[in-house]
């Protein structure tokens, strides 16, 4: 997105990717990095996450995103910041 700044503000996109297919499944424009937290759920909610692996910044290891991990059959790993985790099936 080089050169895409408007009035000095660069666009910030949150994307969902299928790495094996090298495909972008969805994107949302967010005002800034801090706005990614509520946007992640909005981006992933319409998708069937059964059996998938979600990889995200530690920024997204919040109690509010636990239900996203639950949709992927309960596999969740700790980010080292003291968030509760479940290790069944790891």
TrEMBL record:
It comes from the Bacteria. Residues 65-90 are annotated as: Disordered. This is Transposase IS4-like domain-containing protein.
